[in-house]
Write a structure and sequence with these properties.
Layout (H helix, E strand, L loop, with lengths): L2 E6 L6 H10 L4 E3 H7 L6 H10 L12 H9 L2 H25 L7 E5 L14 E6 L2 H12 L3 H9 L4 H7 L2 E4 L4 H17 L7
Parallel strand pairs: 1-3, 1-4, 2-3, 4-5
The structure holds adenosine-5'-diphosphate.
Adenosine-5'-diphosphate (ADP) binds next to helix 1, helix 6 and helix 9.
Length: 205
């Protein structure tokens, strides 16, 4: 049976960097951010539902959803964010399930699900294990500002709109601190895989 490792962590904590490691190991990675993006494309299920709730003002001239406009609305109003999540999360879960079903369990016994809001969406119940990539806020700010060319204020707003790290730490099965180099992160992930294999938790040993 396919086992699911859910990876989470705050914005710019290093999830995508961890994904590269798993893909190099031929372990399939399902990217929830990508799914969340795709379901809002014109003609997709989420498109109509979001439009119905948020109105025509969020459309660009080509009738595609203006994602930065939608972002402005939900990142400035918690209630609106909850509404958007209520619409999109069930669609995202459906898509994840469909992608996992595509995986051949005899070939790949572990699938990674990169889910930035795993705990916020209570997605841990669908995972066999969860991994939190953790970094202190100061380093998170630095990496986020550098990667997304954000101002200090904008970066802080994004970070603070997410569940606090201390809360996520309580929910995660494994926590990896990504405060060292990328190579350090890889070594820790390697160690984690060995640990999982060693316990024969997903039948790879
Ligand atoms: P996430 O996917 O969690 O948002 P990323 O993997 O994109 O985070 O990492 C955020 C930024 O920090 C990226 O520019 C990435 O290259 C960089 N980064 C990640 N891990 C490290 C590390 N250990 N040392 C230096 N830079 C890192």
């Amino acid at each position: 049976m396919t086992k699911i490792l859910g990876i989470t962590g705050g914005i710019a904590s290093g999830k995508s960097t961890a994904d590269v490691f798993f893909r190099e190991k031929q372990i399939p990675v399902i990217d929830c951010d990508q799914i969340a993006h795709d379901i809002l494309n014109k003609g997709e299920k989420g498109y109509e539902l979001v439009l119905k709730r948020f109105g025509m003002n969020i459309l660009k001239s080509d009738r595609s959803i203006n994602r930065s406009e939608l972002g402005q609305i939900v990142f400035n109003d918690k209630k609106q964010l909850e509404t958007l999540n209520r619409i999109t999360h069930p669609l995202i879960f459906q898509e994840i399930q469909a992608k996992i079903a595509l995986n051949n369990p005899s070939k790949n016994s572990l699938v990674v699900v990169d889910a930035p809001v795993l705990f916020e969406a209570n997605g841990q119940k669908y995972c066999d294990f969860t991994l939190l990539i953790a970094i202190p806020e100061s380093l998170q700010m630095k990496r986020l500002m550098l990667r997304d060319r954000l101002s200090k204020g904008a970066a802080l707003k994004r970070i603070r709109s997410q569940m606090p790290l201390s809360q996520k730490e309580k929910l995660a099965d494994f926590v990896i601190n990504n405060t060292g180099t990328k190579q350090d992160l890889k070594s820790k992930l390697e160690q984690l895989l060995l640990e999982i294999k060693g316990e024969d938790l997903y039948g790879m040993s």
